[in-house]
């Protein structure tokens, strides 16, 4: 079999030597947008945190837990997005990293367990529409709930998962075709994440950045997955820049909890 084409693997279009995969909520942003609307427009923080713990320790699938969280929200989708625009902020180091990545032919691919309309609206708000449109986003979708006419009415929307997996969107499926490329064609693959939706992606790349103080670190330590921590994208920027410039390799960078 021949290797995959750029049409099949969009991040290969410019023949990059490095590809940066990343979660969105709580990674590119400082807060998790889904947690925020569940806590403030849905059934609240305590039930949401209990469901997150159940997923982390294998007592529930992410897919079922996340749907339960989102189903507790009856606010119209457009109102949810407006609330999020006022309360979700961009990681302070992301804009500089984004600009540097573009200059150095390193595609950034967002792999999210969230919903594409929400992500696109937030990125357009935080980066500007033109810059946001350059980012590849692979995530779940939103549809009108049965018996309703529109997502922008009370109780009108529901999540539509990308696949049939227990994650709803198994991020590893997007990364694995890149990881399986022949050695002479395969870019170095990075991934950044923070939480339970990142568990499927954690083992798939050459270097995993796990956000300090978040659930993904516990999973990596429990499963002996090599990683390094970051506080914000300025940490990621410094490490990735050193690797791109040949000052550091991915094994040296995977120092675990700092």
Automatic annotation (TrEMBL):
Family annotation (InterPro entries): HAD-like_hydrolase_phosphatase, HAD-like_sf, HAD_hydro_PyrdxlP_Pase-like, HAD_sf
Source species: Remersonia thermophila
Pfam families found in the cross-reference section: HAD
Record lineage: Eukaryota, Fungi, Dikarya, Ascomycota, Pezizomycotina
Keywords, in A-Z order: Hydrolase
The protein's name: Phosphoserine phosphatase
């Amino acid at each position: 079999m021949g290797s995959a084409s750029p049409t099949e693997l969009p991040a290969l279009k410019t023949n990059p030597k490095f590809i940066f995969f990343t979660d969105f909520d709580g990674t590119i942003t400082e807060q998790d947008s889904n947690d925020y609307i569940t806590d403030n427009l849905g059934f609240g923080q305590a039930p949401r945190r209990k469901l997150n713990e159940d997923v982390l320790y294998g007592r529930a699938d992410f897919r079922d837990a996340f749907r339960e969280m989102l189903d507790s929200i009856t606010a119209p989708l457009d109102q949810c997005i407006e609330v999020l625009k006022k309360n979700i902020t961009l990681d302070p180091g992301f804009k500089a990293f984004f600009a540097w990545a573009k200059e150095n032919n390193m595609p950034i691919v967002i792999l999210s367990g969230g919903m594409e309309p929400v992500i696109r609206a937030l990125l357009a708000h935080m980066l500007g529409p033109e810059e946001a449109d350059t980012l590849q986003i692979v995530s779940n979708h939103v549809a009108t709930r049965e018996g309703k006419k529109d997502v922008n009415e009370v109780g009108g929307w529901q999540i539509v998962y990308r696949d049939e997996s227990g994650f709803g969107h198994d991020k590893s499926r997007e990364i694995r075709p890149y990881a399986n490329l022949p050695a002479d064609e395969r870019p170095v693959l990075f991934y950044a994440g923070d939480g339970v939706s990142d568990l499927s992606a954690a083992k798939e790349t050459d270097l995993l950045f796990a956000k300090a103080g978040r659930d993904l670190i516990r999973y990596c330590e429990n499963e002996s997955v090599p990683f390094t921590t970051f506080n914000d994208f300025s940490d990621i920027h410094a490490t990735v820049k050193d690797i791109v410039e040949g000052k550091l390799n991915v094994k040296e960078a995977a120092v675990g909890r700092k």
